[in-house]
Design brief:
Order of helices and strands: HHEEEHEEEHHH
Strand order of the largest sheet: 1-2-3-4-5-6
Number of strands: 6
Number of helices: 6
Structural class: alpha+beta
Largest sheet: 6 strands, mixed
Strand content: 25-35%
Length: 167
C-alpha cells in the first residue's frame, strides 16, 4: 500500500479540497458528473469528484440530519451501487463521510465519520490511508478490491474488534 502524505492530506481536508485529495494524494481517477436526488419534496445535487473501478465519491453540499442522509444514500445507490458521500455544510466547517456496508442477506449498515475544520483529523487520515492506490496497483485492481479497501477503512466493527483484542 502506498504511503500517504499526512501533512498534505491534513491541509486538503482543512481546505475542503476533496478533488485534489482523491486524485493527487489517494490515487483515484477524476470523475465529473452531477446526480440530482429527490427526497421528501426536496432535490439535492451531488457532484462526483473521483472514481476508482466503479466506486464513486460524491460531494453533497447540504447540512442534513442522519435520517435524511440515509434517504439520500438509498437514492444514490439506485444509480451508483458502490459509493462514498461526503456531506459538507455551507460554511465549510464540517464534513460527514458516509459509506454503507452491503452484505448479501444482511441489512445495510451505515458508517459515518464526522470531521470538523481545525481538528487534526488523525482518525480520518488513518481511514484514507487504506484507500490510497499506487500506479503499480492499477493493472490488477478491480471494484471488489476497491470496495474491500473502503470496507477495511470505514468498517467500525473491525476497528472496535481490533481495539478490544489489543486491550
Amino acid at each position: 500500500m502506498p504511503k500517504l502524505n499526512i501533512e498534505n492530506t491534513r491541509d486538503l481536508l482543512q481546505r475542503f479540497d476533496f478533488k485534489t485529495l482523491f486524485i493527487e494524494e489517494l490515487g483515484w481517477d477524476g470523475h465529473h458528473a452531477k446526480l440530482d436526488v429527490a427526497v421528501d419534496g426536496q432535490t439535492y445535487q451531488l457532484t462526483a469528484i473521483a472514481e476508482k473501478r466503479g466506486m464513486v465519491v460524491f460531494i453533497c453540499a447540504a447540512a442534513v440530519d442522519y435520517a435524511m442522509r440515509r434517504k439520500i444514500e438509498r437514492r444514490v445507490a439506485q444509480s451508483v451501487h458502490e459509493h462514498l458521500i461526503i456531506y459538507i455544510d455551507t460554511d465549510k466547517t464540517s464534513q460527514i463521510w458516509q459509506w454503507v456496508k452491503r452484505e448479501a442477506g444482511k441489512p445495510t449498515a451505515c458508517r459515518e465519520h464526522h470531521y470538523h475544520r481545525g481538528q487534526p483529523g488523525d482518525a480520518l487520515i488513518q481511514k484514507l490511508q487504506t484507500i490510497t492506490f499506487s500506479l503499480e496497483e492499477e493493472a490488477e485492481l478491480t471494484l471488489v478490491d476497491v470496495t474491500r479497501r473502503v470496507r477495511t477503512g470505514f468498517n467500525l466493527d473491525r476497528v472496535t474488534k481490533q481495539f478490544y483484542d489489543c486491550f
